[in-house]
Amino acid sequence: MIKIAPETIDELMDWISSISDAEGPGTTRLLYSESWIEAQNALKAKFEELGMATEFDSVGNLYATVEGTEFPDEIIATGSHVDTVVKGGRLDGQLGIMSSYMAIKGLLETDGKPKKSLQIISMAEEEGSRFPYAFWGSKNIFGLAKRSDVEEIADADGIKFVDAMRETGFDFQDVPSHHNLAAFIELHIEQGNFLEQTKKQVGIVNAIVGQKRYNITLKGESNHAGTTLMEYRKDTVEAASRIIVQSIDKAKAEGNPLVLTFGRVEPKPNIVNVVPGETLISMDCRHTDAGILDRFTKEIEADMQKIADDMGIEITIDKWMDEKPVPMDAHIIETIESVCKDNDLNYQVMHSGAGHDSQIFAAHVPTGMIFVPSIKGISHNPAEHTEAVDIVQGVEALGETLRRLAY
Known about the structure:
alpha/beta, four-stranded antiparallel beta sheet, 15 strands, globular, 12 helices
């Protein structure tokens, strides 16, 4: 097994994190920004130092490849996304790229060239932080992104997506088809606290949750807070409260891994002395089992409708996201677990409650994910942190998995 020094991890993460559009705390590296192209070019140079052949596709995904000695057309790929959120942490996305670099560097030093090709992919974008579009990098790899989806969108400063892309030297033409990928492995921080709570250093992801997201609009009647008696009110905040409490109680009774969140509540007119005649609430529900997710959300949709009907309130339920759960590849899960057992790594098989590039890959390529712990579950925040000694186990697991798949 390759051996990685904790200080090597810290040095590499400090280096890549320093490439940012804004001074700290945190790293800001948005799609097609100055720091984004600087980071991609710096990574390109670092990969080339290992003797890897590098290329950009036309939208800015970076590929670095060591050609296999026996089966060069079978590619075992690894990597993650290079973009960050605004003032993000030093690990999300870029840890997967630097872990891939460390793992392949270690393999080349100890084992020489692989039989199958090894490839690092530094994906252009995953977060959707600058423009209202997520997974631009991974979706382009498989021809899933549509030009029409981004031609008219712009960032908060009014800069159009296509103009920013062309300014950094990329365009829509001639995206390479990478359908010869034989496997894809992504290492990522957990972005939750399960591994920390269970005192495990490696998570083997068996599935990425499905997600349903809703905007729910309640319409009643605005009226005077002092003169409108309680029994004559059509109070949409009361209706929202009943919906939220009843739905969360049902979610708790359903048990893990189902999670339910009401993250946004917007009453109108939102002033102290008027009964709110309209309220918008958002709802996010996730589970690893599509059947359970469908059944549970249908139940609470019916509950919402009944609460609204009983109160004489109009309800509109807009389900604007419906993503199915994505299982990881059984053979790759078994391979990673075998690596952990054989090398006494401290691991746990688990699901991912957040979305990742791997969910795009998994529909097309045998895919696996390795998690390392997030202290207090903090992510998308300068306080995001994982101890280097924990990352070591994740990188070792990644390296040995790549060895078994490619050598």
